[in-house]
Amino acid sequence: MQSDEERLINIEMALADHEKMLDELNSVLIEQGKKIEYLIKQNQYLLNLADEQGVKPLSEETPPPHY
Fold first, then answer.
1. Which value, in Å, is the radius of gyration of the alpha carbons in the chain?
2. Does residue 10 fall inside a structural domain?
3. How far apart are CA 8 and CA 39, in angstroms?
4. pLDDT digits (tens, 9 = 90+) for 21-43
5. Which segment of 16-20, 31-35, 55-59 scores lowest on mean pLDDT?
6. 62, part of any domain
7. Which residues are CB-neighbours of 10 under 8 A, at least 6 positions away?
8. Phi and psi torsions of 57, nearest 5°
9. 2 and 10 in contact (C-beta within 8 Å)?
10. Does the pLDDT at position 55 exceed 80?
């Protein structure tokens, strides 16, 4: 059976591992948020560009004639 001191050391080590993992996950989450923001801006830019050039959505385009 483990002594109280050994149990405390094991708990502290597990806590340190969990804190490290949370920091890493937080970093990944922040980076993904930045990428999502970038993609949203790019998407909006492309939508605006298509509007300026008079490009219609495919659902509004007339189908090409069949030969």
1. 27
2. yes
3. 46
4. 999 999 999 999 999 999 999 99
5. 55-59
6. no
7. 2
8. -60, 150
9. yes
10. no
Mean pLDDT within 1-20: 97
Q: Which domain holds residue 8?
A: 4-52
Is pLDDT of 60 > 90? no
The pLDDT value given to residue 3: 96
Token pair recorded at residue 9? 């050391």
Residue 4 dihedral angles phi and psi, to the nearest 5°? -60, -40
CA angle 55, 60, 63 (to 5 degrees): 100
Give the number of domains in the chain.
1
∠ CA 11-17-22, rounded to 5°: 125
Domain assignment present for residue 42? The answer is yes
pTM of the prediction?
A: 0.66
d(CA 10, CA 4): 10
